[in-house]
Write a structure and sequence with these properties.
Blueprint lengths: L34 E5 L3 E4 H15 L4 E4 L5 E5 L12 E9 L4 E6 L3 H12 L6 E5 L3
Antiparallel strand pairs: 1-6, 1-7, 2-5, 3-6, 4-5
Helix pairs in contact: 1-2
Length: about 140
């Protein structure tokens, strides 16, 4: 189950250089759960990486607790096939990614003991290409 938008207005977006720079203003505090995974740096996270983190949490917490994914991969990524020369236009869409800024909450969980929640988020953070920090409401 990879995440991607149902429908897009434009198949290929312009690059928006350094879109992951800066500090998150929206989505920087816990909104749903008691524990969350906060990005310590900005990056682009693909839908496959989000799915890997989701599976790591789901496998660890089993049937207990609740999980929220706070980011969504809505930006298309394009790539040209291997061994194709320069020019001849932009490549075809190959997947989607989410733009994550420093301080964004990526995942939240609730309904678990603090030890289990921290371990589940630690496992999920190891699947992501950003340095992360576990935050809780009791801070």
């Amino acid at each position: 189950m990879t995440l991607f938008p149902k429908k897009v207005k434009y198949r290929k977006w312009q690059r928006m250089r350094h879109s992951e720079d800066g500090v998150a203003v929206r989505g920087a505090t816990l909104a749903f759960g008691s524990f969350g995974l906060k990005a310590q740096e900005g990056s682009l996270i693909s839908s496959a990486q989000i799915e890997a983190a989701r599976k790591a949490i789901a496998r660890y917490i089993q049937k207990f607790g609740r999980m929220w994914i706070r980011i969504f991969p809505d930006r298309p990524r394009t790539a040209k096939p291997p061994e194709v020369g320069m020019g001849k236009g932009k490549g075809d869409p190959v997947g989607y990614y989410a733009v994550v800024k420093t301080g964004s909450i990526i995942l939240e969980i609730d309904g678990l003991s603090p030890d289990v929640a921290r371990e589940a988020l630690r496992k999920a953070g190891s699947k992501l290409p950003v340095r992360t920090k576990i935050v809780s409401r009791a801070q």
